[in-house]
Amino acid sequence: MTNNKDNYIKIFDTHAHYDDDRFDEDREYLLDERGLLKEVSYEEIDKVSCIDKITNIGFDIESSENSVGYANKYDFMYAAIGVIPHHVADMKEEDIESLRRLVDSSDKVVAIGEIGLDYYYDEPDRDLQKKWFVRQMDFAREVGLPIVIHSREAAKDTYDLMCDCHAEEIGGVVHCYSYTEEMAREFMKLGFFFGIGGTLTFKNSKKLRKAVAAIPIENIVLETDSPYLTPSPNRGKRNDSRYLPYVVAEIARLKDMSMEDVARITYQNACKLYRIK
Predict the structure, then answer these.
(1) d(CA 107, CA 82)
(2) Burial of 75: CB neighbours in 10 Å, binned 0-12, 13-18, 19+
(3) Buried b (16+ CB within 10 A) or exposed e, 1-25
(4) Closest CA to 55 of 218, 197, 219
(5) Residues 28-41: pLDDT tens digits?
(6) Residues contacting residue 79 through CB under 8 Å, at least 6 positions apart
(7) Residue pLDDT, tens place only, 224-245
């Protein structure tokens, strides 16, 4: 690592999907060879960065198992496990027991997620999505872990169900936050963090930039959602954690902060979110 502490920032990627098949060709390099942990620098950004920790996020039973496997193998990686709304159509109570076994199998499981509601498509049925969102929130309470929430075009129902389930007692993060500044204030009342990633750098993200400007830095964590949502100026390429300095730079610009302070505080927030000492 660099010896120039004034030019070095350490980053925690709180939400990634390295089990995605788009990493099949170079996953061994990125993870086994610690490619993600090497110094990262871009000519547009006058700072050297390093990806220090990553949470790999499950979206169904298989990806949850993969996430735990990676977390057990790599010291720098943690796992979240759960079933995303897209995959709840065939979900059964037995799947909750499968998730419970994963929690019991490893202390590297740090959250239940990603779980939630997604109304972008008509399927699965919204009532079914709500049922399994509530059940997985209850499960998170049972096992004493925070939740990673996936919410798209479903702000009110997401918030209402969180209130009904007293999510403020569970804790967690609203992943890939995309709603308004006003809605952010409601989620903050529940004590939640906000996952901010590459979409912040998109030209059409004025609403999100306004929300991020208003959200206290103490409530923000960094994420990639890799291989998705690559920050500008690399939009369209496969995303990975090494592009997070672009997000740090944009948050720093919006909040008139240094990149070092943004990285340091969001790193501390991520450790608090996932209860990592």
Answers:
(1) 16
(2) exposed
(3) eeeeeeebbebbbbbbbbbbeebee
(4) 197
(5) 888 887 677 677 88
(6) 55, 56, 57, 58, 64, 67, 68, 70, 71, 102, 106, 108, 109, 110
(7) 999 999 999 999 999 999 999 9
